[in-house]
Amino acid sequence: MAFLPDESRALPPPPLLNKGSVWLGFVGWMSALMDNAFNRRPILRAGIHRQILLASLGYFVGYQLVKRAEYMHAKVDRELFEYIRHHPLDFQSPTEKKRIGQLLEDFYPIR
Fold first, then answer.
1. Per-residue confidence at 3, pLDDT binned at 50, 70, 90?
2. Domain annotation covers residue 5
3. How many domains does the chain have?
4. Range of 30's domain?
5. Which of 14, 32, 63, 100 is least enclosed, having the fewest CB within 10 Å?
């Protein structure tokens, strides 16, 4: 599948109720309601099957988009950690941390 490669199957699935799927499910349902309104049909009572279809279609698309976003973020994280592993000298932490009193100059009020 071109949208999600096979290596994305190793990732844990996102939760079923996530922001993307709920939002796009709501957008799908609202598009069915807008279609009813533009065609001068009763907004909530006409075309219940279309409302359910478009809401579930939006939910599915939102879920797949969240899966793709998580895969892309995991791929970038993997590449960054691989780079850090190959170049450890560029990412050495300082041996002794400076305290805030060592960083700031002494304060002398001017009157």
1. confident
2. no
3. 1
4. 14-86
5. 100
> Which tens digit of pLDDT belongs to each residue from 45-72?
999 999 999 999 999 999 999 999 999 9
Looking at residue 39, what is its pLDDT?
A: 96
Asked if residue 50 lies in contact with residue 35, where contact means CB atoms within 8 angstroms, the answer is yes
Closest CA to 36 of 48, 28, 46, 26: 46
What type of residue sits at position 101?
Answer: G
Q: Does residue 52 lie in a domain region? A: yes
Token pair listed for 18: 């996530």
Is the Cβ–Cβ distance between 66 and 17 less than 8 Å?
no
Domain assignment present for 102:
no
| Strand positions, DSSP E, 12-110 | none
